[in-house]
Amino acid sequence: MHDALSFHTLLPNLLGTQLLADEAGPSSDIAVPVAVPELIIAPAVTYAQLRACSSLVRRMYTWRGYRLAPNRLQPADPNHVTIGAWLAGELVATATASRDSAAGLLADGLYQDELTRLRGPSRVVCEVTRLAVDLDCHDPELLNALFKATYQYVRAVFGGTEVVIEVNPRHAGYYRRTMGFQHIGSLRTCPRVDAPAVLLHRTLANFHY
Predict the structure, then answer these.
(1) Single pTM value for the model
(2) What is the C-alpha to C-alpha distance for residues 63 and 78, in angstroms, rounded to an integer?
(3) Residue ranges of the alpha helices (H) in 90-168?
(4) Helical (H) or strand (E) element with 188
């Protein structure tokens, strides 16, 4: 376990880089600086970064006994972003944020009625999925920093106003106490991971950087 984490979230400065990378396409040579002796949280934009994020998700889901559905997200899809947290150049945490679109959200599979009630002409619902934190870095500060960076991206790039996440009911209390989520969906079994889940929601209207 790292005794002290030096947090240096570069996400606001890298949003422009991410947008340029999106415009340039997957073959772009734009690189995101990650190999520094601090924790940097930023969008994963290179093939190596995205592969590392997928590997961490697969490893942590397997360790928890979850089944992991294939990642069908396309890196160039403007409605999805993978956020990575690198400590001294090593990936220690990741999460994916998705913006609601005609294709819907993954949570629609279990909670379509609840999401329908959230949707509206002045609302943009976003979803956090594929969350994973390395076993050696289970520090609440790290998770909070990862979510803060994800919220920043969701608001700045996706125009998001609402965030939902499906979590194991054992962890729901933590998300409510520390991250401002509210419980809006009852206990169900998520077939993607073959595990129990509840749906949580928070608005970004009262979120401050």
Answers:
(1) 0.80
(2) 31
(3) 108-118, 140-156
(4) strand 182-190
pLDDT at 12: 44
Which is more confidently placed, 67 or 167?
Answer: 167
- Per-residue CA distances from 74 to 45, 92, 126, 142, 196 (Å): 12, 22, 17, 26, 27
Residue that is written with structure tokens 């619902």 in the block: 125
Phi and psi at 155, nearest 5°, equal -75, -45
Task: Compute the chain's Rg from CA coordinates.
Answer: 16
Element (H, E) at 182: strand 182-190
Structure tokens at 78: 């403007």
For residue 20, give the nearest of 10, 6, 32 by alpha carbon.
Answer: 32
**Token pair listed for 148:** 């803060």
